[in-house]
Design brief:
The chain is built from ten helices and seven strands. It has one domain: Rossmann fold, CATH 3.40.50.150. About 40% of the residues lie in helices and about 25% in strands.
């Protein structure tokens, strides 16, 4: 799904604040040269930050289109889902997934991460979660969705809440108790930038073409009617645990 819009994804999706990388590296006691495995790397929105800190990142990405964009940046990429990847036992000091872990299936996924990590290694799962839009934009934006795509919401799902992840990791038994860190940051989007971003979201891409076009046109008009710039507050939620 995302491979069809790989270049748009690279241009439109937000990356991550510098504090995210510092948080993970400090928690894991990581150093330049340490091996890291990324699950669902996409076009490298998180990858390059760890590369810049000297980590040796090996990326897994099932989409050929996304992998092509990332490989052009000089990153080692295997075109495979994590579920099908032949585990390299104890090969990595860090295993991480950015905006991707909720796509990973299989009841053994935490065991497989643990197998790939050295003892004392770190699992880091993180997402950018946008806060509720400011008023009065929110009311007009919600009205557009209610008219044109009432089945959709703009809120993040709860598939990766702290409680759910804590329970899954505890059930695995291979990790110390999971902790959460939250990094808050701000940005803004023009109507054109926000439309490009929405066009990379799976729930928007699954809409019928005519519905998606009408919805995006109306939301763009709402942004323009409220000054032409949409402020967005993101919380980068980082979930961390140590391999026993």
């Amino acid at each position: 799904m995302f491979g069809e819009v790989a270049e748009q994804y690279e241009a439109a999706r937000p990356s991550y604040p510098d504090e995210l990388y510092a948080t993970v590296i400090d928690y894991g006691g990581l150093s330049a040269g340490d091996a890291a495995l990324e699950i669902g790397a996409g076009t490298g929105k998180a990858t390059m930050g760890f590369v810049a800190h000297g980590l040796d990142v090996h990326a897994l990405e099932p989409s050929a289109g996304m992998a092509r964009v990332l490989r052009a940046k000089g990153v080692s990429v295997e075109e495979t889902p994590f579920e099908a990847w032949p585990t390299r036992t104890g090969a990595f000091r860090l295993v991480f997934a950015a905006q991707a872990w909720h796509w990973v299936q299989g009841s053994d996924r935490y065991d497989k991460v643990a197998d790939a990590l050295t003892p004392g290694g770190t699992i880091a799962l993180f997402w950018n979660v946008g806060r509720a839009h400011p008023e009065p934009f929110k009311t007009d934006n919600d009205a557009a969705y209610a008219r044109l795509a009432p089945e959709m919401t703009n809120s993040a799902g709860d598939e990766w809440t702290h409680e759910a992840l804590l329970g899954d990791v505890a059930a695995c038994g291979a990790f110390e108790p999971m902790v959460e860190r939250k990094i808050t940051w701000r940005t803004s989007y023009t109507s054109a930038e926000w439309m490009r971003l929405l066009g990379t979201h799976s729930n928007h891409r699954m809409l019928p073409d005519d519905t998606r076009t009408r919805l995006h046109t109306e939301i763009g008009a709402v942004i323009d009617a409220h000054g032409g710039l949409l402020p967005v507050v993101y919380d980068t939620r980082v979930f961390l645990a140590t391999r026993r």
